[in-house]
Design goal:
The complex is a heterodimer of chains A (859) and B (154). Chain A is mainly α and 859 residues long. In chain A, helix 14 (281-300) packs parallel to helix 16 and helix 18 packs antiparallel against helix 19. The longest helix of chain A is centred in the first third of the chain and has 23 residues, at 186-208. Chain A is globular, with a radius of gyration of 36 Å. The relative contact order of chain A is 0.03. Chain B is of the alpha+beta class and 154 residues long. In chain B, strand 2, helix 2 (86-100) and strand 3 form a beta-alpha-beta unit. Classes of the chains: A mainly alpha (859), B alpha+beta (154). Chain A binds chain B through residues 22-23, 828-829, 831-832, 834-837, 839, 843, 846-847, 850, 855-858, and chain B through 14, 17, 21, 23, 28-29, 31, 35, 39, 99-103, 139, 142-143, 146-147, 150, 154. Chain B: Belongs to the MIP18 family. Chain B: One of its GO terms (biological process) is protein maturation. Chain B: This is MIP18 family-like domain-containing protein. Chain B: InterPro entries: FSCA_dom_sf, MIP18, MIP18-like. Chain B: Residues 35-96 form the MIP18 family-like domain.
Chain lengths: 859, 154
């Protein structure tokens, strides 16, 4: 190998020069290799080879490299071009290659690093105009004027490559660390002499240069200088701090220069995580002081020069660089949130709630998950919910004029996420605190029942006028309490469960969706604690369900068609059913009741409890309202219907949409994140139980209203079922799916469900089994799809319909040929669609259908 | 009838980077030259396994479109002055655009000024409806056009 070193070197050079591809990537905040030229496989292998041979025999190869004419020529020519943009393309390529060579040579061992530094570093410093340190150690006053001159790009780039290699060599390898690089090493001493000057030069480049390339490398250079391990190059604290200060001033002042801002933030994050990882305690305390504290103070300042979202981006970025920083930052964020919230409650200072909303979002989406992943400190996670509740407790009167829904939502989200990450003990503390605030509010004692009953007996008109008679403070307390319940683990007991159930049921009727979701969460998790921890709550699941259903259950012994209550609670005649019937003129309580029931049903469905059947039967009853009992097997006294259910169509529609709540995945509650009890394959199971019931109902049904509602319910179930069970039933389902599609075509409100259903159809069409099922109904499918091509309300529907037609063109020729002309005619209109994506699909579709019958010999 | 290739050694250029378009969710997307260019840039040259873009026969700047009037004008540059494949290329362009746009669009195809010896007669031939229809009825020509248009699918 030694004999052929020269030849190998030449071969490597050739390979690389010929294999670098343009164009170069532009300078963004992502890290680049070299100057960003793309290296193909050949180049990569050549460089790997170079690495290996240098490791084997460094002195030989390094002499070859150092004496290489090409490299020296390039070094001579870079002095001609000052800035990156001036260099012609070939020159950039060559510079990139030289940089890669030097970088690879330097990082193979300390000896080679020394050699490379020796040969090139002084020259580069000279080109950059940085004077040699004279013996006494101080620099001449000419320094400052020299530094303000523009740095030569080529020298800057190569210098950075050398520094980066040296740094990676020392930081990466533990053996070298233990050897502790002595001051006699060339690279060490060179770095020592020049680091101060380099720091100043890079700082001034960052501040003054407008070019992306300069900014990118200057930032990189400063980052490298700041992240040398202490034993390698003891950098003065003042120097280190000056680097941090430079970056911080860019972040706070120059936020309009996007690339510069992003690079500075990234550099700070890298520096922070490096010094944290390497336990450089002095540097860590400088970082804390200069960076972390400053950035926390930004958030509390009422200074609006820097856009708030940008402040939050900076603060969350810096937090992710280390746990100690994040803990400090989270404190600052929380303080800001509490201040803002208390101002909001007291209605001082009519600021818009946007800032608080942003703070809460940053807290829930970025900070909390990071803390949870990196250590999950219960004391920290517990703090926020407890403090929020204490705040509400102390503000007895809210003077807010207008309910800020966005703010309430953001607070609820933050509360949910914070509680969800806590352990059982912490959740216990939180829920006790919340309950104490709740019980001192105007909800308790629950005298609402009697007053409601009286109102009903008076005809229920009062309730009709002001459904939502909760005060703002009550609504906050209720919603936040519901959020705590939603996020609680199954093992966390809920205090005074029976009372809470009553509370939620009442507020559900008033339209509180969080209460419905909380009730759903309770029935989902109740009674699921493990056998070891037999925590006795005051209510078992069966008791709870009985309470709920007693007030809602269908009494099939009396007149079958009448929904009537048979049970009473504490002697009051309150019943859910009465509330529905009594308030004849107002549909809202009925709709609220259906919503409540659907969340409860969802909780039961997820855990696989059999009561979910009762819930779905109630919904189906609603959907079949006009039907007499003959279609429905459960009814017994079919002939007697003295008191018919006279339900408003909006109520029936809400019963159909209940299936959407049952089947779809919610971000807000009843999912894995919030510790829901989920039985595997629950969706498939529900699908297989519901289909045999729904299908005959739809087929036999004559009434157009109930048919369309049943189809709606069907669509909701199908859209959220995984594709596999649908494919096995595809033959039976396709006719109903097509009916649903044509029915949902009409109303713009239905566009989302139409799109989801169309996606199911496209899933069927693109599967082999599904295609077999479609063949018999091909004509109907095509008719349906051609109508959907011109659906005006949603571009995705048109696009998907056309894609389905493309899939149809793959069916057996004999089946689809009759429809060819029809499709081509419909598609030629779509070529004119206002949206480009649709036009392009139309071209594909036209080509697919035209080519099933062509005179050309090739198709 | 020439026996060999018209242009045996064409100059091949790199393909321009394909930019992914960001769609405007609210507005309507007007037909613009880039859209048309995306349809025609991969048409294969009749003689060589390169696309018209790679041989610099077409470029985005050579296309103009007026959506309201429904008119498209494409100018292309044959690789050499006496290229007799020019008419075939023009035919390929016309067929492709017929497939990609609704029938009411009027398409004008011309060679760029000064790029061909018989510029006027070639332009006349390319835009004459009857001659185009007659050409497409010739099975050999039809096959050649289909190969140029859909070679990447075969």
């Amino acid at each position: 190998m030694l004999k052929h070193a020269g030849a190998i070197w030449l071969a490597i050079k050739d390979a690389i020069y010929n294999s670098i591809e343009e164009p170069a990537l532009s300078f963004t905040s992502e890290s680049l290799v070299g100057l960003g030229f793309q290296e193909n496989e050949i180049a990569k292998e050549a460089l790997t080879l170079l690495q290996r041979v240098i490791v084997q025999n460094d002195s030989l190869y390094l002499s070859l490299i150092v004496k290489d004419e090409d490299i020296n020529m390039i070094l001579n020519t870079i002095t001609i071009y000052e800035s990156y943009n001036d260099i012609y393309l070939q020159g950039k390529l060559k510079l990139h290659v030289v940089g890669r060579f030097l970088s690879i040579s330097a990082r193979s061992s300390i000896a080679s690093c020394n050699r490379v530094f020796e040969s090139y570093f002084p020259r580069l410093m000279e080109i950059l105009g940085l004077p040699v340190k004279n013996l006494s150690g101080d620099h001449s006053p000419i320094v400052s004027s020299l530094i303000s001159k523009r740095l030569n790009f080529g020298a800057l780039y190569l210098c950075i490559e050398l520094l980066a290699s040296y740094r990676d060599l020392t930081a990466g390898s533990k053996e070298i660390a233990s050897k502790s690089i002595s001051a006699s090493e060339t690279c060490y001493s060179m770095l020592q002499s020049y680091s101060n000057l380099l720091t100043k030069a890079f700082c001034s480049t960052l501040a003054t240069s407008p070019q992306d390339a300069d900014i990118y490398f200057a930032a990189k250079g400063l980052q490298i200088l700041a992240t040398f391990p202490g034993y390698v190059s003891p950098m003065l604290t003042s120097e280190f701090e000056s680097i941090l200060i430079t970056f911080m001033s860019i972040i706070t002042l120059h936020f309009k220069k996007t690339l510069l801002w992003k690079l500075s933030l990234k550099a700070l994050v890298n520096i922070g995580s490096f010094i944290d990882e390497y336990h450089e305690s002095e540097k860590v305390s400088s970082y804390m002081g200069v960076v972390v504290e400053k950035i926390v103070s930004l958030v509390s300042l009422d200074d609006f020069t820097m856009p708030f979202p940008l402040k939050l981006e900076a603060i969350s970025g810096i937090g992710t660089s280390g746990l100690s920083y994040m803990l400090k930052i989270v404190q600052g964020l929380e303080e800001a949130i509490y201040t803002n919230l208390s101002e909001f409650y007291a209605h001082e200072n009519m600021k818009s709630p946007d800032i608080t909303v942003w703070l809460l979002e940053c807290y829930s989406n970025k900070v909390l998950p990071w803390i949870h992943e990196n250590g999950s400190f219960d004391e920290v996670l517990l703090r926020f919910p407890v403090n929020v509740w204490s705040q509400i407790e102390s503000h007895v009167d809210f003077s807010i004029q207008v309910q800020e829904m966005e703010l309430l939502d953001a607070t609820m989200t933050a509360m949910r996420h914070a509680v969800a990450f806590c352990s059982v003990e912490s959740q216990n503390k939180i829920i006790q605190k919340a309950y104490s605030v709740l019980s001192s509010s105007s909800f308790f004692p629950l005298k609402e029942f009697t007053s409601l009953t009286i109102q009903f007996q008076l005809g229920g008109l009062q309730l009709a006028q002001k459904i939502d008679n909760l005060s703002y403070r009550d609504e906050w307390i209720l919603s936040l309490f519901a959020s705590v319940v939603i996020a609680a683990r199954p093992q966390t007991p809920i205090p005074n469960l029976k009372e809470i159930l009553q509370l939620f049921m009442t507020t559900i009727l008033k339209g509180s969706v969080p209460a419905a979701q909380a009730l759903g969460s309770i029935v989902n998790k109740l009674g699921k604690e493990s056998n070891e921890l037999k925590i006795s709550s005051d209510c078992t699941l069966e008791e709870a369900l009985e309470t709920i259903f007693r007030t809602m259950l269908w009494n099939s012994h009396d007149n079958g068609a009448v929904m009537k209550c048979s049970g009473t609670n504490n002697g009051s005649e309150m019943s859910f059913a009465d509330s529905c019937l009594g308030v004849v003129n107002n549909n809202l309580p009925q709709i609220h009741a259906v919503t409540g029931l659907s969340w409860i049903g969802k909780g039961l469905l997820l855990r696989g409890h059999e009561k979910v059947k009762d819930v779905t039967m109630i919904f189906l009853e609603f959907l079949l309202e006009n039907n007499k009992a003959d279609a429905f097997p459960l009814k017994q006294n079919s002939l007697e219907s003295s008191c018919e259910l006279d339900l408003h169509p909006s109520v029936i529609k809400s019963a159909a949409d209940a299936f959407h709540i049952l089947m779809s995945d919610s971000e807000v509650c009843l999912n894995r994140k919030f510790h829901a009890v989920i039985r595997p394959l629950y969706k498939q199971r529900f699908f297989s139980t519901m289909m045999p019931i729904l299908q005959p109902l739809i087929m036999k049904n004559d009434s157009s209203l109930s048919r369309s509602m049943l189809c709606r319910a069907f669509a909701h179930i199908i859209c959220d079922t995984p594709l596999t069970p649908i494919l096995s039933e595809a033959k039976k389902l396709i006719p109903i799916i097509l009916d649903c599609l044509s029915m949902l075509n009409k109303d713009i409100q239905d566009k989302d469900i139409l799109y989801s259903l169309l996606l199911v159809l496209s899933g069927i069409l693109t599967d082999k089994k599904g295609q077999e099922a479609v063949i018999e109904n091909a004509h109907h499918v095509v008719n349906n799809l051609t109508k959907l091509i011109v659906y005006p309300h949603m571009m995705l529907v048109r696009e998907t319909a056309i894609q389905c037609l493309v899939a149809m063109s793959e069916l057996p020729h004999a089946r689809i040929y009759p429809m060819r002309i029809q499709v081509l005619r419909a598609i030629s209109n779509a070529l004119n669609d206002p949206k480009r994506a649709v036009r392009q699909e139309a071209v594909r579709c036209r080509q697919a259908w035209a080519s099933i019958a062509s005179r050309s010999l090739h198709f | 009838m020439t026996l060999g290739l018209i242009n045996a050694n064409p100059v091949v250029h790199a393909k321009k980077e394909r930019v992914a378009r960001t769609e405007d969710p609210h507005g309507d997307d007007a037909v613009d030259p880039l859209e048309i260019y995306d349809f025609v840039r991969d048409i294969r040259d009749p003689e060589h396994p390169y696309s018209l873009e790679q041989l610099s026969v077409l470029s985005e700047e050579s296309i103009t479109v007026d959506e309201k009037l429904g008119r498209i004008l494409i100018t292309f540059t044959p690789t050499i002055q006496h290229c007799s494949m020019a008419t075939v290329i023009g035919l390929c362009l016309r067929v492709k655009l017929q497939h990609c746009f609704p029938p009411h669009y009027k398409v004008d195809i011309k060679v760029s000024p000064g790029s061909h010896a018989n510029e006027e007669s070639v332009n006349k031939q390319l835009n004459d409806k009857e001659r185009v229809a007659a050409a497409l009825e010739n099975p050999n020509l039809r096959q050649l056009v289909d190969e140029c248009l859909y070679s990447n699918e075969l």
